[in-house]
């Protein structure tokens, strides 16, 4: 094969509205784990967005790929787990378990599905330099020849019609995480955000936990301190999240006390009292920057979230270094457009 793992997936920057005009392809943004699948005969690799191997956690998908007629290919898509007619991110996260027996049990109870939206190569041919328009045609042909009897592999829909994309966007918040919009004439921009944008119903960002504060009068975690990497390569403190129950705080305390390690943030660090929290002390505990969380926020100005954020979920599939400032800088000072509510 000309393409081998790890291969950085093409990414998308956040925008507030679905782009209009010619030259765009619209796709649903599925609520799952990004995955690039490599097959070279009997050798099959599943790679996460962070470049980590996923095959051991999704043996059902490996088995499905092994049964396809095509002997060599590289696909880009999203791993999802359907449960009772809807996609379950919780069940998806459970797959990341160290015990193979547990993974097999989960796979049998709720088989995963691989939703494919790009074809990056076949046999000895790489398609990275070909336009999306050409790659989509090749992918649709590939799907017709290979996916017919493969229930676990599905072709993700795509359209050039803005009205159809808007209809998809109305469904965002359930199985769909939003809309991804790609330039039809663009090559596959591995590791870049130059050829695609994404639109979500809420503003979200993936952040690194660089430290925590204990709650007032207690030794339980009160808030997690969030960081993003800047162009200088340093981890900068950008805010906090504290939307946890008491029982969750006990678990968080065990988790993050075990990760205590200076300096936590290598760039801008948490400060002391501020105009928003006059009784806030400067005391905080640094942790090793290993944990990634997805949060929702309402505004980002002056290099930080203006208010506290809302915790959405853990992101074990994403590497800390992928949590860059450009996620929020592209949207700084703009209002989120909730289209077609």
| Rg computed from alpha carbons, rounded to a whole number of angstroms | 21 Å
Count of the domains = 2
Mean pLDDT: 88
The name CATH uses for the topology of the largest domain is D-amino Acid Aminotransferase, Chain A, domain 1
- Indicate the percent of residues in helices: 10-25%
At the first level of CATH, the class of the largest domain is Alpha Beta
Query: Which stretches are low in confidence, meaning pLDDT under 50 for 5 or more residues running?
Result: 273-281, 330-341
Shape descriptor reads globular
Order of helices and strands: EEEEHEEEHHEEHEHEEEEEHEEEEEH
List the total number of helices: 7
CATH architecture of the largest domain: 2-Layer Sandwich
Biggest sheet record: 6 strands, mixed
Structural class by sheet pairing and helices: alpha+beta
CATH H-level name of the largest domain... which superfamily?
DNA ligase/mRNA capping enzyme
Strand content: 25-35%
Number of strands: 20
Oligomer: single chain
Distance between the termini: 45 Å
Question: What features would you highlight for this structure?
Answer:
single chain; about 350 residues; alpha+beta; D-amino Acid Aminotransferase, Chain A, domain 1; OB fold (Dihydrolipoamide Acetyltransferase, E2P); 6-stranded mixed sheet; 6-stranded antiparallel sheet; about 20% helix; globular
Molecular structure report:
There is one protein chain. The chain has 341 residues and is of the alpha+beta class. The protein has two domains: 187 residues, DNA ligase/mRNA capping enzyme (D-amino Acid Aminotransferase, Chain A, domain 1); 126 residues, Nucleic acid-binding proteins (OB fold (Dihydrolipoamide Acetyltransferase, E2P)), CATH 2.40.50.140. The protein contains seven helices and 20 strands. The strands form five sheets. Strands 3, 4, 5, 8, 9 and 10 form a six-stranded mixed β-sheet that branches. β8 and β9 form a beta hairpin. The protein is globular.
């Amino acid at each position: 094969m000309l393409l081998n793992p790890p291969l950085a997936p093409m990414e998308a920057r956040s925008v507030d509205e679905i782009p209009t005009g010619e030259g765009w392809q619209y796709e649903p943004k599925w609520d799952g784990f990004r995955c690039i699948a490599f097959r070279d005969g009997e050798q099959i690799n599943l790679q996460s967005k962070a470049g980590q191997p996923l095959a051991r956690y999704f043996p059902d998908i490996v088995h499905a790929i092994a049964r396809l007629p095509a002997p060599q290919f590289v696909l880009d898509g999203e791993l999802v787990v359907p449960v009772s007619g809807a996609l379950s991110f919780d069940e998806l996260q459970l797959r990341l378990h160290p015990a193979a027996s547990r993974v097999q049990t989960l796979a049998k109870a709720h088989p995963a599905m691989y939703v494919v939206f790009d074809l990056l190569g076949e046999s000895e041919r790489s398609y990275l330099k070909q336009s999306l328009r050409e790659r989509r045609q090749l992918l649709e042909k590939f799907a017709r020849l290979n996916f017919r009897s493969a229930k676990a592999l599905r072709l993700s829909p795509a359209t050039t019609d803005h009205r159809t994309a808007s209809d998809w966007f109305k469904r965002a918040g359930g199985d769909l995480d939003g809309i991804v919009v790609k330039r039809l004439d663009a090559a596959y921009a591995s590791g870049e955000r130059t050829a695609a944008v994404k639109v979500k119903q809420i503003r979200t960002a993936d952040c690194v936990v660089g430290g925590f504060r204990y709650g007032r009068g207690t030794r339980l975690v009160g808030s997690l301190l969030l960081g993003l990497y800047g162009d200088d390569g340093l981890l900068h403190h950008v805010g906090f999240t504290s939307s946890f129950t008491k029982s969750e705080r006990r678990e968080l305390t065990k988790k993050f006390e075990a990760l205590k390690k200076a300096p936590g943030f290598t760039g801008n660090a948490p400060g002391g009292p501020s105009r928003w929290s006059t009784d806030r002390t400067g005391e905080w505990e640094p942790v090793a920057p290993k944990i990634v969380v997805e949060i929702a926020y309402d505004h980002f100005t002056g290099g930080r979230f203006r208010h506290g954020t809302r915790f959405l979920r853990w992101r074990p599939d994403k590497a800390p270094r992928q949590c860059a400032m450009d996620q929020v800088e592209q949207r700084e000072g703009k209002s989120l457009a909730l289209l077609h509510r």
